[in-house]
Design brief:
UDP-galactose 4-epimerase, domain 1; 9 helices; 2 domains; Rossmann fold; seven-stranded parallel beta sheet; alpha/beta
C-alpha cells in the first residue's frame, strides 16, 4: 500500500517540484492549496489526476478537518507567504500565514509519523559579516516574512523538543529553477534579459547561495528518509555562492542578451544582508555522499530555456 504524504503549499514553486518527485517515488500524495490557486496554477497541470487536492487556508483552523479526512502519515510543510519584499506591506498576511498557519496545523493534526518543517535561510538575518551561517547561530530575522517563518519554526521546535513529536526542521538557502515566480531575483533577471530590457541592479556586491531546485529536492527527499534528521535543524544548500553582480553578468551572457546592464542603478534595501554563506557540514554528515548534483550553470541554462518557452507561449496566447 502506498504511503500517504501531505505537502502543504504543494502547488508552490519548491513544493510542486517535491510533489513530482514523490509521485515518481510512488507515494500517495495530497496537497493543500488556497481556494483560488487550483485553476490558476500550471505547475502541476499534468498531475492533477494523480494527487488529492485539499483546498484550504491553514490560517483558519477549521480547514484542518479536510486534512484529517486524508490522514497522512508524513507532512512536509511548505505552505507560507514567501515574498520577502511584499511582506513589509502585507505583514499581517505574512505573519498569519507563516505563524498561525503552522500553529494551526501542529495543534489540530497530530497523528503523523513524521512532520518536516521547511524553514528558510532568511531566519538567520543579521549576523557578523563573513560568518558562516551554521545551525547553532542565534537567528536574527529582519523581515515580516522571516519573522513569521522563524516563529513557525519555534512552534515546531516546541512540539519537537517538549512534546516529543517526530519533527525535522530544514533551512533551505535560496532556490531557483523552472516555474519560479519572477518576484525572485533570478527569474526577474532572466525575463528582462530575454526581452532585451534595460536591467538595473544595486552595486551587486552582496552574495547569496543559489541552489538549483532539482538539487534541493534531492536533498529534501533524502532528509525525508533518514531518521538522523529527527529532532534536528539542518541547513540545506549545495554551496554555490555568487555575488549579485556576477549573477547578473552570467545570466546576460547565457541569454545572449542585448540588454543594457546598469550596475549601481538601484539602492540597496535598508535591511540588506550582504553575505549569506551556509555551513553544510551538518547536512553532509547526514546525507548520502553519492548525491549527483546539477551544476549551477546547468541549472541556470535549464531555467533560462524554460523561461524562453514560457515567453513563446505567452506570444501565442
Amino acid at each position: 500500500m502506498k504511503q500517504k504524504i501531505l505537502v502543504t503549499g504543494g502547488s508552490g514553486f519548491i513544493g510542486s517540484h517535491m510533489v513530482r518527485e514523490l509521485i515518481k517515488r510512488n507515494y500517495e500524495v495530497a496537497i493543500t492549496t488556497k481556494y483560488d490557486s487550483v485553476y490558476e496554477n500550471i505547475r502541476l497541470y499534468n498531475l492533477w489526476k494523480k494527487i488529492k487536492v485539499i483546498e484550504c487556508d491553514l490560517r483558519h483552523s477549521n480547514s484542518i478537518n479536510k486534512i484529517k479526512d486524508f490522514n497522512p502519515k508524513i507532512i512536509i510543510h511548505f505552505a507560507a507567504y514567501n515574498d520577502v519584499k511584499g511582506s513589509f506591506l502585507n505583514y499581517n498576511e505574512a505573519l498569519e500565514s507563516n505563524t498561525i498557519g503552522t500553529a494551526n496545523l501542529l495543534e489540530n493534526f497530530k497523528s503523523y509519523d513524521q512532520f518536516v518543517y521547511i524553514s528558510t535561510s532568511e531566519v538567520y538575518g543579521y549576523q557578523k559579516r563573513g560568518l558562516l551561517f551554521h545551525e547553532k547561530l542565534l537567528p536574527h530575522p529582519i523581515s515580516p516574512y522571516s519573522i513569521g517563518k522563524y516563529t513557525g519554526e519555534l512552534y515546531a521546535q516546541m512540539h519537537m523538543q517538549h512534546m516529543r513529536k517526530p519533527i525535522k526542521i530544514l533551512r533551505p538557502f535560496n532556490v531557483f529553477g523552472e516555474t519560479q515566480s519572477n518576484k525572485a531575483v533570478i527569474p526577474e533577471l532572466i525575463e528582462k534579459f530575454i526581452k532585451n530590457e534595460t536591467v538595473k541592479i544595486t552595486k551587486g556586491l552582496q552574495t547569496r547561495e543559489f541552489n538549483y531546485v532539482g538539487n534541493t529536492v534531492n536533498f529534501l527527499y533524502q532528509a525525508l528518509n533518514r531518521n538522523s534528521f529527527f529532532n534536528n535543524i539542518v541547513n540545506i544548500s549545495d554551496g554555490n555562492e555568487i555575488s549579485i553582480k556576477a549573477l547578473a553578468k552570467k545570466i546576460q551572457e547565457l541569454t545572449n542578451s542585448k540588454s543594457k546592464l546598469i550596475i549601481g542603478g538601484l539602492t540597496e534595501r535598508p535591511t540588506e544582508i550582504h553575505k549569506m554563506k551556509a555551513s553544510v557540514k551538518k547536512m553532509k554528515g547526514l546525507l548520502s555522499k553519492n548525491s549527483k548534483l546539477i551544476s549551477f550553470e546547468e541549472g541556470l541554462i535549464r531555467t533560462i530555456n524554460w523561461h524562453k518557452e514560457k515567453e513563446k507561449l505567452s506570444k501565442i496566447f
